Amino acid sequence: MKITSDWPLPPLGIRFLLPQFIQTQLAGHPLTEGLFPLAMGYYPAAFGHRMQRQQQDSYLLIYCIDGKGTLMCDDKRYRIRSGDIILLPPKHPHAYKADTKDPWTIYWLHFNGRLADHFYQHIQLSTPTLNIGVQPRVVRIFDGLSELRRSGYQLAEYIQGGHQLQALLSYIALLVRQERPQSGKIINWERLRATMQEHIHGQLNLDELAAIAKLSKYHFTKKFKAHTGQSPIQYFINMKIQRACYLLDSTSQSVKQIASAVGYDDAYYFSRIFKKTIGMAPNDYRHHRR
Fold first, then answer.
1. Percent of residues, the chain, with pLDDT higher than 90
2. How far apart are CA 199 and CA 113, in angstroms?
3. Residue 161 CA to chain centroid, in angstroms?
4. Which residue, 33, 157, 174, 255, has most beta carbons within 10 Å?
């Protein structure tokens, strides 16, 4: 099945399909077989752009940075606006088109690989589309991938492109977690992180953190772990250890002084926590970094 539309490409537009011999090399190379691009493009103010597929053999990512459009998928109609991503797995019937009055500007990317489904699952979209806002970092990665069209088919360039693609999908997964609507009471994550940062030299307990979020300890811990993958207290400890690493790298303070600076009166206990987190004692870390 045809991978791209026949939409007439304007002077500033980009449409680039990797030749089959490059796709074969990437699918067989140990550094790229996990994830690699197949085709990519940039369609500015894409008046008249439309596409319909009964199925496709690759994953499709579309990022709208301006204007509007429509996606039909799973017998549902989704209105697409600036900041929306669309992510579709293979063999998934769909149709999409630009708005007639305010046509979208989009980046698009087809990709595949052994890890493609793992990244798709990691992003955890409950619907095919979600608004992540217009993110300069995402735009930069798309622009970087688009430069592959100037690579002269050098394999090293495509290896780098494969790793850019991993960075793109990993970052989108993070943005999705930040932007996903929360069920029940919404937690002010920035306030929580700021509070932890303010108490980096001292202590915070679960009761205090839950009170800031105005939730029970049980519901706060459950929401926090779903958002970060860590318990609130472990997250706070990790912030302290990150600060301790910075002080070990950038100052000549003793381990006892650094322990005190991140809220530990007992330097031996601090060293045990540090080693459990980093994998080496503070003095070994300092020596290793130098």
1. 76
2. 44
3. 16
4. 255
CATH number of 189-289: 1.10.10.60
CA 21 to chain centroid, in Å, comes to 30
Write the CA distances from 139 to 64, 154, 185, 260, integer angstroms. 10, 23, 32, 42
pTM for this entry: 0.72
Average pLDDT, the chain: 91
Rg (CA), the chain: 23
Pick the CATH number of 14-179 from 2.60.40.420, 3.90.45.10, 2.60.120.280, 3.30.565.10: 2.60.120.280
Q: Which two tokens stand for residue 52?
A: 């319909």
Q: How far apart are CA 101 and CA 67, in angstroms?
A: 9
197-214 pLDDT tens trace: 999 999 999 999 999 888
Residue 61 has pLDDT above 70, yes or no: yes
Give CA torsion, residues 17, 21, 23, 28, to 10 deg: -170
Please report the pLDDT score of residue 191 as a whole number: 84
